[in-house]
Amino acid sequence: SPKAPPPEAAAQKIVPKPQLGAFGIETQYVKAAVKPGDDFFAYVNGGWLDTAEIPADRSSYGAFQMLDELSEQRVKSIVEDLSKTAPTAGSVEQKIGDVYAAYMDDAAIEAKGLAPAEGDLQKIAAVKNYDELAALFGSPGFMSPIDMYVDLDAKNTERYLLTATQGGLGLPDCDYYLKANYADVRKAYQAYIAKMMVLGGASEKQAAADAKTVLALETKIAKAHWPVEKRRERYLTYNLKTIPALKTYAKGMNWDAYFQAMGAKNIKDINVAELSAVRDISALVKTAPLAQWKAYQRFHYLSGHAQYLPKAFDDAQFDFYGKVLEGKKEQRARWKRGVDVVEGSLGEAVGQVYVHRFFSAEAKDKMQDLVANVKTAMRARLQGLEWM
Fold it and tell me: At what angle do helices 92-104 and 63-85 cross, to 10 degrees?
């Protein structure tokens, strides 16, 4: 069970009501004009689909998005309440309030301009060789054409396993680079790259050249990528290799520098998800000139941190990723994105306060009963299978 809440959190305990109503079909949305045998989904949901409107800051909408909005409002109330109570120094409450306040301080962000990013941008500019480039790939906050994540070993669930996987693209997947029907998206993406470079201090001419370079480099990466359908073959994406074997198989990347920068120590083996992609991208690391990788890194750093930079960066990012790729009409309110930032960086801390304020003892008992009933049903099912 969660730790005891601080007095300011416990004092504001709220017992919410169920948000989605009773279980079952809401018959007021049945569309009688549709025969259920022709299209049962349209029959049951047609009335809702005909009248519901997707909010301008979203590309889809439904029950889960509604619950997400409810959670946003609740976390906002937590953050705003904490900002009025002067929480204990060093407490999770203070950290939550500080992160949110910093994100919402538009005036300070505008006044500082690129100054907070200059240290990292200088790291990119200072890269002198491919070993330093590999270290940059492994460093938090910088783009890498090969990504890493930790998950349970799919064939030995007694341990966690580091997995190397294809990455490095600014567009959703390799099809956006290679198929003719995405030509307009590529054109818009190249324009977006150039705009980011200009905002970052480059001349129009240099920005145009950099945009062309970055798109060409990502296209080479995309050609090595496995398509989505191939990545769904679970047996193709489990390829255990020792670290010496990885170095022999995927040459080009300085894996020691990568892992050291990443903070990964004493790794004996690793899963290489998309075998040929990781191999070919690793080879590309040393065949592409350093200047190209620096342009690539600078663009992705500015794009990846746009919401923390002055408004011009944030707007440019939304114009491409929000409008062009997702079809959104307007940017989400700053406070909503601030809630996302707080939850993303201090999720466990927010969860402590959230649970004590909104998760009643009654709701906890119901959830525990549900879990117990599911476990009982699963045991019974498994016992029945043993006799088959």
Answer: 110
Supply angle C-alpha 50, 320, 300, rounded to 5: 140
**pTM for this structure?**
0.80
- Region 241-260: mean pLDDT is 96
Edge-to-edge strand list for the sheet holding 269-272: 146-153, 156-166, 269-272, 240-242
β-strand pairing of 156-166 with 269-272: parallel
Q: What is the pLDDT of residues 162-214, one digit of tens each?
A: 999 999 999 999 999 999 999 999 999 999 999 999 999 999 999 999 999 99
Structure tokens at 356: 């004590």
Give the residue, 14 or 21, on which the prediction is more confident: 21
Give the pLDDT mean for 23-35: 85
Tell me the C-alpha distance between 161 and 237, whole Å: 13
Contact 189, 174 (CB under 8 A): no
- Whether pLDDT at 274 is above 60: yes
- C-alpha span between 250 and 339 (Å, rounded): 40
Q: Which amino acid is at 45?
A: N
Query: Per-residue confidence at 21, pLDDT binned at 50, 70, 90?
Result: low
Chain mean pLDDT for the chain: 89
